[in-house]
Amino acid sequence: MTDADRVSAPAAPEGAAGVFGTGMALAQRFAEILADTGVSHGLIGPREVPRLWERHLLNCAVIAPAFRAGPVIDVGSGGGLPGVVLAIVRADLDLHLVEPMLRRTTWLQSVVDELALTNVTIHRGRAEEYAGRLAAPAVTARAVARLDQLARWCAPLLERDGVLIAMKGRSASQELESDRPALIAMGLRSAVVVEHGGDAVTAGLLEEPVLTVDLTFEQRPARASSPQGERGGNRASGRARDGARGQVRGQARRRAKG
Q1: Which pLDDT score is estimated for 248?
Q2: pLDDT-based confidence at 20, cuts 50/70/90?
């Protein structure tokens, strides 16, 4: 992308600070990064830049209250949506971003370093490779796959009574009903479509509420017996090897002691 093609990040809409709080400056810097290298690396399209705040940053930020303090796994994090945004909004969350593509994990690591986000760890690999190696009370994903496939990847990463919080569009309810038989076969205990960001909608920050489908399963599925090893050799994959040796809660405890 040439300088002539580059589009500057839009200014944050009035009222965004009410959502991001003390993380507003970091959110603004993340918006600038997304508009620059996020576009050149193919993580977002150039046409998305003018609506970065409404469609991406605020869209992810308003789901932050859905998570309890502690570990959260973001599967298929891509451009750090929602993982990086959640880390900015909630310093009490321990975010683990799982992403299979080397160029994306390298980019994510550069973002985490620049923003000095100490509550984020990058893991390179597919979600199914981390079954039995990472676990958290909450797993989330945005625009990754249909519910039935997403649950197959994410449910093995849930701790007992954990919840998969899947960000979905307007058709969330229809998709849930369509995929419910497959989810029940996987041990679905409860499923609910939740609206987030009502205040932001009222304030004009979002055109409509953000929907998540929250899935809880009867029990955590069996762990993978032989997860695949790490690939790569860059800094991000090195951190992935270190982070994946124990469960996520162990990492959170070590950080707390530090």
Answers
A1: 54
A2: very high
Is residue 184 within 8 A of residue 141, CB to CB? The reply is no
Maximal C-alpha separation, the chain: 54
- Judge contact between 117 and 88, C-beta under 8 A: yes
Question: For residue 8, what are its two tokens?
Answer: 């500057």
Give the residue from 129, 149, 133, 131 showing the smallest Cα distance to 141: 149
pLDDT digits (tens, 9 = 90+) for 79-109: 999 999 999 999 999 999 999 999 999 999 9
- Nearest in space to 120 (alpha carbons), one of 257, 255, 258: 255
Which of 198, 191, 196 has its CA nearest to residue 213? 191
Question: How many other C-beta atoms can be found within 10 angstroms of the C-beta atom of residue 18?
Answer: 12
Residue type, 146: R
What's the pLDDT at 231?
Answer: 32
What string of DSSP letters covers the chain?
--TTT--PPPPPPTTTHHHHGGGHHHHHHHHHHIIIIIHHTTSS-GGGGGGIIIIIIHHHHTTGGGS-SEEEEEET-TTTTTHHHHHHH-TTEEEEEEE--HHHHHHHHHHHHHHT-TTEEEEES-GGGGBTTB-EEEEEEESSS-HHHHHHHHGGGEEEEEEEEEEE-TTHHHHHHHHHHHHHHTTEEEEEEEEE-HHHHHTTSSSS-EEEEEEEESSPPPPPSSPPPP---SHHHHHHHHHTTS-HHHHHHHHHH-
Per-residue confidence (pLDDT) for residue 5, from 0 to 100: 52
Cα–Cα distance measured from residue 117 to residue 217, given in angstroms and rounded to the nearest whole number: 31
Residue 240 has a pLDDT of: 38
